[in-house]
Design brief:
- This is GAF domain-containing protein.
- By secondary structure, the chain is of the alpha+beta class.
- The protein has one domain: 2-Layer Sandwich (Beta-Lactamase).
- Helix content is 37%, strand content 28%.
- Strands 3-2-1-6-5-4 form a 6-stranded antiparallel beta sheet, with helices on both faces.
- The chain is globular, with a radius of gyration of 14 Å.
């Protein structure tokens, strides 16, 4: 069940992206919305699949890694496994890529078009175990609404 907080955010996502089909524009506003509405974050943004690797897309936060191989780090694992990755302590994640040493937990949600992963939403926090099941369900719901609006 999606929490009231994420239900409210979902309504905002649907209103914000209704009729918006430019992916970069939508990703830019989506990352800004999440950065504004979620607490205890130090990075939120997207990596897009390009030529078999993840390439940095729109984001809010400090300078980030430019490219990530599929299967590497939390983002690359999300693509390889085609499922959300929720990591309570990134320092214990085998192969974690430390773009910002202040990050301690991370959640990565695949973004799909026609059933294929075309990007990932990546959110980092300086707080250990920042993301729980409620966040995962909520963020997956927001990404699904984003996909429906932008790829319609």
């Amino acid at each position: 069940m999606i929490s009231e907080f994420y239900q409210s955010l979902d309504r905002q996502v649907q209103a914000l992206f209704e009729g918006e089909h430019d992916l970069i524009c939508a990703m830019s506003n989506f990352s800004a919305l999440l950065n504004d509405q979620l607490t205890d974050l130090n990075w939120v943004g997207f990596y897009l699949m390009k030529e078999g690797q993840l390439v940095l897309g729109p984001f809010q936060g400090k300078v980030a890694c430019s490219r990530i191989a599929v299967g590497k780090g939390v983002c690359g694992t999300a693509v390889a496994e085609d499922k959300t990755q929720r990591v309570e302590n990134v320092h214990e994640f085998d192969g974690h890529i430390a773009c910002d040493a202040a990050s301690n937990s991370e959640i990565v949600v695949p973004v799909r078009q026609d059933g294929k992963v075309i990007a990932v939403l990546d959110i980092d926090s300086p707080k250990f175990a920042r993301f729980d099941e409620t966040d995962q369900i909520g963020l997956e719901t927001l990404v699904a609404s984003f996909e429906k609006c932008v790829f319609a």
